[in-house]
Amino acid sequence: MTQSPPATRRRLPYLCLAYACVALGAVGLFVPLLPTTPFLLVAAWAAPKGSPRLDEWLRRHPRFGPILRAWREEGAVPTRAKWLACGVMLLSWVLMLAIAASVWVPLMTGLLFIAVAGYVCTRPVPGATRASRG
Fold it and tell me: What is the mean pLDDT of residues 110-119?
């Protein structure tokens, strides 16, 4: 039995994570309240470390490519994605509040959602950094 080279062994976890996140992101396109964007962002982070071919596919994808490139190059999030993220978090929180047995779960989740929404909403819009330099 031969040992795999160390570089290949280091790539494997990133490869598995990238493909798992792409799969979960794809499922999120069809399953309500399962987010697609966070999974694709993780996949975009892991893919270059695990699979240059997957990274290239993600960057050239007609739907996800522009959003992922904007994130990678500018740390930017489109306005529509900001609204969607905040709306889905609010809807999820309201549903959680309605069915939670304890007040602590919605309270802690609400604090987390506020922090995430604050982070997402303070990211620039794609092209804003170029426009401010120009």
Answer: 93
Residue 22 has pLDDT above 50, yes or no: yes
Are the beta carbons of 13 and 50 closer than 8 angstroms?
yes
Cβ-Cβ contacts under 8 Å for 95 (sequence gap 6 or more): 33
Alpha carbon distance 14, 4 (integer Å): 16
DSSP code of residue 33 = T
Angle in degrees, 0-180, between the axes of helices 65-74 and 52-60, rounded to the nearest 10 = 110
**In this structure, what token pair is assigned to residue 109?**
């989740």
Q: Is the pLDDT at 107 greater than 90, yes or no? A: yes
Q: State mean pLDDT over 72-100.
A: 89
Print burial letters for 55-75: b (CB count within 10 Å at least 16), e (below 16): beebbeeeebeebbbbbeebe
Name the DSSP class of 101: S
- Indicate the pTM of the whole model: 0.69
Q: Find the length of the chain.
A: 134
Whether the CB-CB separation of 51 and 18 falls below 8 Å is answered with yes
